[in-house]
Amino acid sequence: MSKNKGLSSRAIIGNFYQRLEATLEASWASSIAMTFESDQDSETYKWLGQAPAMAERKGDRIWHGLRENGITIANIEWENGFEIPIDWVRRDKTGQIMQRVDELAVRAVTHRQSLLSTKITQAESATCYDGQYFFDTDHSEGDSGTQSNDIGVDISAQPASVHGTTTAPSPEEVRAMVLKGVEQILSFKDDQGEPMNELARQFTVMVPTSYFSAAASALRNPVLGGGDTNVMVNLDGFSFALATNPRLTWTDKLAVFRADGSAKPFIWQQETDIQLDVIAEGSEEEVKNKRWLFGTSYWANAGYGYWQHACLVQAT
Question: C or N terminus of the chain, fewer CB within 10 Å?
Fold first, then answer.
């Protein structure tokens, strides 16, 4: 049987994994989610609280206990796939089949973003390791005091010349929201009453698509529309990455996430790597059913990590 000599399953597989790697690198997921490898149907994560602060030694050393909290995340198998008639393979001169398989790689990566986005949009009503909602106004552990990572910013406090609305804010108003979110994250204390994020310098700012233009200006333009110098462009030691997320259901909110901590706001638990399965040339499927089969699958799931590395900011 005559086939398109330029198309083989080996070439398709190689191209798939190249596209997968490039798409993973471009994803915002790794900036807000820490990856844990799994080897069973579920994993339990214990948060033991923070190590005690240094103190002057007076007599015998004091041995402190650690607080214990935890969550369990179950792995789920995810899959997709499609069939290609071998006549299409023979006639494909424009690379359409290769492009469709490339899209399987993109779908696998955006699926990770989809699972994390669901966690983000549900975070005001879903509990995390301390038993509180992930975004909540009354987190408290040990000597931390009551802390909120769900705050509002009165954007009407900005000069009248740069007023927008809560659903279509100006760059100056988005800047005020982001800076307040960072300020809140920097203020958080651990269960020992010690600052938890005093070394934080890198942040991911996640916005709905309706905020994209204003957020891009707020984070990148040296001078804003009101004529003032934009402090965020050259804020000593601090950097901000913009993640525009069309899956968000928010209309008047954004989220700020710490991106440079060893722990992160979310957990990405992965039992198996993303795998491409191909049944193609020379197979019984090709002979009997005159088609090639392509599919991806993996076992993984998402969960909540450190609420202290995240702040939801609502425009009011």
Answer: N
Residue reference for tokens 């609280």: 49
Q: What is the domain partition of the chain in residue ranges?
A: 150-266+307-315
Record the tokens describing residue 196, joined without a space.
């938890």
| pLDDT tens column, 109-121 | 999 999 999 999 9
* Tens-place pLDDT, residues 157-169: 888 778 899 999 9
Per the listing, tokens 């392509």 go with 294
Instruction: At 105, list the tokens.
Output: 């790689």
- Give me the residue label for tokens 């996430």: 257
Q: Is the pLDDT of residue 301 over 70?
A: yes
Percent helix, strand, coil in the chain, to 5, is 30, 30, 40
Taking domain 150-266+307-315, whether its CATH number is 3.30.2320 is answered by: yes
In tens, the pLDDT along 167-208 reads 999 999 999 999 999 999 999 999 889 999 999 999 999 999
pLDDT of residue 268: 97
3-state secondary structure 118-184: HHHHCCCCCECCCCCECCCCCECCCCCCCECCEEEECHHHCCHHHCCCCCCCCHHHHHHHHHHHHHH
Instruction: Give the type of residue at 177.
Output: M
Residue 101: partners with Cβ closer than 8 Å, 6 or more residues away = 12, 15, 16, 276, 294
